Amino acid sequence: MRSIRVFLVASILAALTLFNFVAALQGYKSSLHEAEKLFDDQLLHTAKLIAKLPLDQDTDSLNHLSNFEYQVWHNNQLVSASSNTKNTIITDLFPGFGDANFNGYRWRTLVYYDPKNENWVIAAERSDLRFALAENVVIKAVLPIVLGIPMIGLLIWLIVSRGLKPLNDLSQQLKDKQVHDLTPIETPALKRELEQVVHSINALIGRVGGALEREKRFTTDAAHELRTPISALKIQLHNLRDELAVDSEPFLQLQSGVDRMQHLVEQLLSLYRSSPSEFSNLFNRINLYMLAQDVIADQHDVFENKHQNLSLEGTDCFILGDSFTLSTLLQNLLSNANKYTPEGGNVLVSIEETDSQVCLKVEDSGPGIAPEDYNKVFERFQRLSNNPEVAAVQGCGLGLTIVSHIAELHHANISISASRFDSGTAFTVLFNKAFKTDAQPMQTDVN
């Protein structure tokens, strides 16, 4: 049972219901016993009253009672009887209460001896009518207890809800916290039972805040250490402009590479400083097919050097995202495919859409990945070395980790499967489709 409130109410109500049931059952038995004693006393008083009446006195007032019969015997002769009884003796003449069957019913009998007149008085009442009357009285006494259970349940619900209100307030305060709000929780008039919980949460928030602060400092230090050598390279390039022709192909490629490296470092540092909720504010509507064309055009020489067949299938598909990080995602997937696909192999990029999603798939004809290792490839610095062909490839083990992080920032799902080739791996990334009604920031589409 997932709700504490429901669990408490159900448990308390079940306990009360069980207690009331046992109490009502015991009360029912006790009440029936007391009612039986009351009826027996009444039957005894009636028998004594009949014994005191003269035998010739009219007793028609007792004859209309269909649930009551009597007989008066003297010297084994019936000297008086109710009009609805038989002429034979009802039960044996032994003083006291008993039970007998006659006239098609079960009867409660009383044999009373009158020593003054030496008469035997037999009085009888129908047991079923006595039981029905007693049961009716008892049920009327027990019924309010049973009918009160729903009201008790409602009262318990209100009390438990009131008791859980501080917990609900704490939950709401946690829910209302912003992404970067790591201030301690402050709840006035906190219940004693929640003080330790709030203390533990605040301690956890403090540890998380410390970890984030250390990560920010590390990112800042790393950015400084990475920017310094790149800045030195740019200074050296500026000095080389006087010694080399600035329009020479090697110089232009070197300058472009350094600029791209600087841009990449800045973007990656910005990427890992961002949370998914912040990053999504920078999204714009992007033609994923056109973006893939641009990335493939940039990477074409790398595949050409290994005589690999790199192809693109699909049509225009639009998603909401960041063009730089999406380009980085595809570049890393293509780089991974290029490294692990042998010379003359095949790499296929396909883009297709469904009613609500856009599917980006990169497939290669390399050695492939064992299914049990699918979840390992996205871990940092994880390189699978079971296959000699894979172990021989140089790499740092961060490419697919960055791919996974970019997919997370875009709220996309990434999975691995076998490729359509005889061997190899397929990486599939499922994005949410961008519709024309989606809000679009004032940024340029990649198309």
Topology:
Blueprint: H1 4-52, H2 60-63, E1 68-74, E2 77-81, E3 96-102, E4 105-114, E5 119-126, H3 127-176, H4 192-240, H5 249-272, H6 276-279, E6 284-287, H7 288-305, E7 309-314, E8 318-321, H8 323-340, E9 346-353, E10 357-364, H9 388-391, H10 399-409, E11 413-418, E12 425-432
Helix pairs in contact: 1-3, 4-5, 7-8, 8-10
Describe the protein in words:
The chain has 447 residues and is α+β, with helices and mostly antiparallel strands. It has 3 domains: 142 residues, Beta-Lactamase, CATH 3.30.450; 81 residues, Helix Hairpins; 151 residues, Histidine kinase-like ATPase, C-terminal domain (Heat Shock Protein 90, 2-Layer Sandwich), CATH 3.30.565. It is 52% helix and 18% strand. The strands form 3 sheets. It has a 5-stranded antiparallel sheet. The two termini are 52 Å apart.
Kindly list the characteristics that best describe this protein.
447 residues; alpha+beta; Beta-Lactamase; Helix Hairpins; Heat Shock Protein 90; five-stranded antiparallel beta sheet; five-stranded mixed beta sheet; 10 helices; rod-shaped; disordered C terminus
Rg for CA atoms: 47 Å
CATH domain topology of the largest domain: Heat Shock Protein 90
Q: State the end-to-end distance.
A: 52 Å
Please, what is the CATH homologous superfamily of the largest domain? Histidine kinase-like ATPase, C-terminal domain
The secondary structure category is alpha+beta
Total separate domains: 3
